[in-house]
Amino acid sequence: MSVSPALISARESATDSDFSAAESKYQAIIKSPQEAGVPENKTLQEQEAAILELGKIYQKQQAKEKISALISESKTVLGTFAKSKTAKIIKTLIEYIDGIPDSVDLSIKTTKECIEWAIESKLNFLKQSLQLKLASLLHQKHQYKEALRIITDLLSEYKKLDDKSSLVEVQLLESQIYHALRNIPKSRAALTSARTSANAIYCPTLLQAELDCQSGILNAEDKDYKTAFSYFYESFEGFNSQEDHRAIVVLKYMLLTKIMLNLVDDVNNILGHKNVVKYQSRDIDAMKSIATAYSNRSLKDFEGSLVTYADELKSDSIIKSHFNALYDNLLEQNLLKIIESYSTVELSHISKTIGLSLNQVEGKLSQMILDKVFYGVLDQGNGWLIVYDKPRKDATYEASLDLVKHLSSVVDLLYEKASSLN
Prior knowledge:
Oligomer: single chain
Distance between the termini: 111 Å
Low-confidence stretches: none
Structural class: mainly alpha
């Protein structure tokens, strides 16, 4: 179908970066009434193209308020589209807002307004689709309680409709929210339900990659890093094949599992793969730096990496939590190495040797003693750590208990026999 001169002119203005002129021309197309002699479907196609292309211009300009206004202004026109087309346009425009930094609050506000409009217009499919998007936005905003309330309603509706494709998305989001709440059993149960639903349908590549990523995250929580790596690898392949921006995040998770297993050679092998070379960035440099520090058992280098690459390593809650555990493990190993040759050692000496404050050293040593990593006591009055040998179990005590137990059995049997004779 041929394109109208008005749309061609608007596109030329957009190409020439004359966004003010392009905006006026696109607005004119959106608001133009149905012309006599022009097929209705052609008018609707041009209005759809104008709305989406104008939204794209606003996204480039990071004019999130204008996109929100565009959605509101276009609702009259959107009412003339087919329901599926209306849903596609609104969801796309909301995604444009969501793609702009610091726009979560506006995305939530706009989505709620669109849900109300969908209810008034009796667009049930759009309402459900937007509710899922709203739950995802609330998850980003850490408003988990409200997100779970929406998900509970959606699960009920989709189960009645037997809409397994939508069920997979809702159950996956439910798993992610429970994981954020640190309710691992419920997160695992929701993921199992999502995978069961996914097995009954054709699962799109990106959705399958999300499922694999969540499986990897939950296996990493169980410290099963080998299985986690397998899931992350499948997830990376899926995101990479679709050139999705989440591929680099999953790549970091792949490297994380190898670091946790202390397989630095594998880290280097992964980074040398042809599919991975294009992702070289500060994010990847941060992971390499941590891998090297952990391999060398250098607490100083590890801390240096955490400071140098603070944004890259601490912005992701999953990487942050595992690296906290890694840091604790490395700190324990360094402390044990320092105190292993002493029976009594000054805390100030340990503090100076390891390069941490006295309070940090005291706190960590107290925790290690309580966890029975080693046996000892802190003499804070003198500022000493007194280290004890690992206590040995007295085998005589266990043997004595067994002997008494057997003698008791013998006495009971003799009593029974004596009773039968009487």
